[in-house]
Amino acid sequence: MKRMINNISLCEPLYKTLPKKVLIKNGTVIDPFSEKEYESDILISNGKIEKIAKNIKAEKGCEEIDAKGLFVSPGFFDMHVHLREPGYEQAENFVSGTNAAMAGGVTALAAMANTTPCVDNKFVYNDIKSRVKGLLVDVHQIPAVTIRREGKTIVEMTELVEAGAPAFSDDGSGIRSSETMKGALEYAKMFGTPILVHPEDHTFAEGVMNESLSSTELGMSYIPAIAESINVARDIEIARYVDGTVHFQHVSVKESIELVRKAKKEGLKVTCEVTPHHFSLTDDMVRTFSTDYKMNPPLRTQEDVDAVHKALKDGTIDAIATDHAPHPSEKKNVEFDFAPFGVLGLETMFSAGITYLVRKKKLSLMEFLKKITVNPRKILNLEADMIKKGKTAELVIFDKDKKWKVDRRKLNSLSINTCFHDDTHYGKVLYTINNGKIFKA
Amino acid sequence: MDDTVKGTKLLKTKHLLGIKGMCREDLELILQTSESFKQVLDTPNKKVAALKGVTVVNMFFENSTRTKISFEMAEKRLSADVVNFAASSSSLKKGETLIDTAKNIEAMKIDMVVMRHSTPGAHKMLMDNLNSIIINAGDGAHEHPTQAILDLMSIVQKKPNLKGKRVTLVGDIVHSRVAMSNIHALKLYGAKVQVCGPSTLIPKDIEKMGVEVTYDLDEAIRNSDVMNILRIQLERHVGASFPSLREYHNYWGITNEKLARAKNDILILHPGPMNRGVEIDDDVADGDHQVILDQVLNGVASRMAILYLLSANIGGAK
């Protein structure tokens, strides 16, 4: 029988094969690894970087990309994505999700394990690995920490690390049992593999939005800041105790950030990420009652957003990751209480960063790019020095100043649940190159 | 329209989703019209033809006795055609969506929808998707605007000038749509608003709404001109943040003994249904200071006024 994947016929991959020789002319290379920015051409040959120099002459048959006025950077890495395959292909699948990724300049991503079946063993892991082969975007599947993400029995980590897993995460749920968390961090320590933690104490978090003046006025059930920070505090203590490596996903409140800052000062192996919506929006948006502002962790207060900006600047927050969480419109277009948590992110990560961080002078362009290129790769122990002769050409060419309006109907994701609909953004990716393939906007 | 109620004024609001965002003029017009309808209710016929030919659907996705009967009564006294629809909102969650349900009902040609729903903001969804006039009969712990209006009417009947008067809402503030709508309405009338109850039932940052907070009922009793006693939802509370009904009654229940320290003309309201012996004692619930049954009658009169005034927008709500 032919293999069937829902909707896959509706979305074809948007990339083309990269010509044998491609010359990127007159661009400004910005390399967050070496922290250097310089005018240079880049010659790509058979998908690999052949030469980085000024005034490279195009040979015969070489395709040229005029990058005058544009930046050339390493491909972006989104370390927090829900591709929804297998199990929820009406929301997203490998093709639609990676189409969205390349449109946003994302050449590699980490996919979370809350699929059906859950990625909690080598067999599901290897099946996914074989199915994402050959795409422009490198999909790094992250297996669950515990079987069925139930927080009880840890997965066969040795086998999964051998198969290529760069980290483990029960994202979508916090791990309730301190004993399980200790076991996971201690076991993963053998491989130097980080545990990516969704910090949430579910005994607090029965609500739909942040606890604040807004939830009071709206009469909505709430997820207090402490539901997150108490879990961050616990897992820092466990990481200290077992000398483990912990990465906190989507931190959203100032209290968590302060805990991470202190842990880093002590030299613990602790890192964290923030989502674009948590650095750009506040829980005031929930007053519209639009379920496009329902996510977990929820949008927080302006004070929290200010703390996020400061922590991005001082390095407390290492990475920006989207928590791309597609849901079909029939699931989102219901009463606020009944809608699932989550919003799209892949296609607006870069522009949200340019719009809300770089243009507002919270971060320099270099600092911002570091958080979507070098840092996530380092956290996952992947190669981060990319603009080098002989390396696979994994590059993004972007216009930093191009203004555009986010339109949910024009996004490449199968779903439309963006929290930036109708928002004016700056920064547009024009070309995304990886694995001998090219996407043109 | 009917001769009994002659109004040339129109409300600025096209729907009634909440008190927040309303202007005082609208509230004044509603109260004034409500008094006229109250006189209608005192006539032997009790009925006017104001909404003849208008179809009103009461959609109740949460249990309600008083509010539902009050609306239905108001609609019938105005000669509207009334259809009732009741379901639990959890059944909606499993099957047809709220929007589909409402659109199907609207396709049968209706003019106004009165809805109660467990989710804050559910009415905005209806407003965005229907052409009918929408009236909120309670959405989660968000707003219950008609309750606030009937409470306001009951207070103003006894104390016409609320400016500077202190009105205290006692009890479960955090789960109360009545509290939120009352706060907005009372502030529009210049009252000082205070909330009183155990700390775990007072929601975060409520003082940022310009509301005073006290945990001490005796203090509240001494300084209040009006007290609105909110219902303790028996099934909901006992647990991590609420020790027992016994303790609640002892410290926050209104008794005649505690009321002895109050101002002579203190007014006691209760939106009902009452838990006698929990938040309010018999001798207070039936005593001289309370206006609880006035509230019920005012409820019908003010809902008549709201339906009537909003009906001016039928066909042109958007």
Give a written overview of the molecule.
The complex is a heterodimer of chains A (441) and B (318). Chain A starts with 15 loop residues before the first strand and ends with a strand. Chain A has 441 residues and is an alpha/beta fold. The longest helix of chain A is centred in the middle third of the chain and has 18 residues, at 225-242. Chain A is built from 13 helices and 19 strands. With 318 residues, chain B is an alpha/beta fold. In chain B, 47% of the residues are buried. The mean pLDDT of chain B is 93. Chain B folds into two domains: 24-144 and 297-313, Aspartate/ornithine carbamoyltransferase (Rossmann fold), CATH 3.40.50; 146-295, Aspartate/ornithine carbamoyltransferase (Rossmann fold, 3-Layer(aba) Sandwich). Chain B has a five-stranded parallel beta sheet, sandwiched between helices. Chain B has a four-stranded parallel beta sheet with strand order 2-1-3-4, with helices on both faces. Classes of the chains: A alpha/beta (441), B alpha/beta (318).
Features:
heterodimer, A: 441 residues, alpha/beta, 9-stranded mixed sheet, 5-stranded parallel sheet, 13 helices, 22% strand, disordered N terminus, B: 318 residues, Rossmann fold, 2 domains, 4-stranded parallel sheet, 39% helix, 14% strand, globular
Largest pleated sheet of chain B = 5 strands, parallel
Show unreliable segments of chain A. 1-9
Q: Low-confidence parts of chain B lasting 5 or more residues at pLDDT below 50?
A: none
What order do the SSEs of chain B take from the amino end to the carboxyl end, as H and E? HEHEHHEHEHEHEEHEHHEHH
| CATH-derived topology of the largest domain in chain B | Rossmann fold
Number of strands of chain B: 9
Major beta sheet, strand line-up of chain B: 7-6-5-8-9
